[in-house]
Amino acid sequence: MTPRPTILAMGAVAVDHVLVTEAFPREDSKSRVVREYRVVGGCIGTAARAAAALGAKVKYAGKLGTSSEAELVLQALLRSGVDTRLVQRDETSQPIRSVILESEATHSRTVLYNLEDCAPASETWPVEEEISSSDLLLIDHFGMEGMLRAARIAAAASIPIVADFEHDARAEFVELLSLVDHLILAREFALRITATSSPAAACDALWTNARQVVAISCGNEGLYYRDRSTAKPKQMPAIRVIAQRTTGCGDVLHGAYTAAYLRTRDVPHALKFGVAAAAAHAEKPWEDGASIELKRVEQLLAQTAR
């Protein structure tokens, strides 16, 4: 039997404390909290869990301490089917801690995050063989030195790299961006780093002959993408659902795209699968965390085919 391809995931994991109010609070005001709960998030934490829940073989390499928050993250990864044997444990390393304020009326949200004692990607972990023997590398921007090392090793071994970027503050980001061949960015970030005014223009600005795809996600407007089969960017519509949340949809799209691409090597299909998974995530209540059901994703995909 041929072994399943393996995704190596490296990047941010978080514990999100969600506070839901009836309407988004104004500055210097008081608002009643109508619901509150904790979920495991983070760019790569959410993407890795989504990919594993949708049938991919995923390994997570990072550092987690022994606090209750770290244990919460570890158990969430395990429940989703993520292999955690590459997680380094120590006494002090914390996941990112976030407080998320969400409006019940509009589902808009603001994320307040704390990076104190958080351990970014290591410059020496995982060992080179773990990276070069993987079938795909899934990364974000958290820990630039470690991410650059992993991306250089993967690129030298012709291993596909999928990136979930949100920040470009470090000078090394330019090199990291150049190494990614499957680039999926949120619209606001893409427009800012390209100094363009439309998702299609951002696709063109970010396109190079070394890329397999550039996609710009635009929420309920779907996404724009350019791949090697298209001479100019194309639009892919969103799948309409009754949204319960928006936080994490982009990360789920990354994870689902990664799982589908490894299975089919078909970029447009993998993007459609990612869009369907993001819709399935959006329609579930917050308390379900990153839970994604393959059956529901396939139902949403079937709707788009009709």
Automatic annotation (TrEMBL):
The organism's place on the tree of life at top rank: Bacteria
Cross-referenced InterPro entries: Ketohexokinase-related (IPR052562), PfkB_dom (IPR011611), Ribokinase-like (IPR029056)
GO molecular function: catalytic activity
Pfam families: PfkB
Domain Carbohydrate kinase PfkB positions: 7-284
PANTHER family named among the record's database cross-references: KETOHEXOKINASE, PHOSPHOTRANSFERASE SYSTEM TRANSPORT PROTEIN
Protein name (record): PfkB domain protein
